[in-house]
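Methods — Computational structure assignment.
A single polypeptide chain was analysed. Its primary sequence is given first, followed by the predicted tertiary structure written as structure tokens.
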Amino acid sequence: MEIERVANAWEPLTDTPEEAANMTMRSQLLLAVSDAVKGWHLPQAQAASRLGITQPRLNDLLRGRIAKFSLDALVNLSVRAELAIHLEIRAAGRAAA
């Protein structure tokens, strides 16, 4: 059995490179917001209020239900969580300097 190596974990799970790139960004943002919320040590209702969302929506975020969040929604939540977002753009296949 041959093991296939991929540069992006989302590649084998998505239909296109564009979808893999979108899922990569979404997963990074979801994890960052989730980590920030956990660091607040607040009840979910208070944390949800701080983010401007409902408690069930926060629960979806904390459980990693990525399909329920668009890239735009996760960017908005990141800003509300007072996270700085940095976007790096480079030619595909080139390592970051």
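Note: DSSP finds four helices and no strands in the chain.
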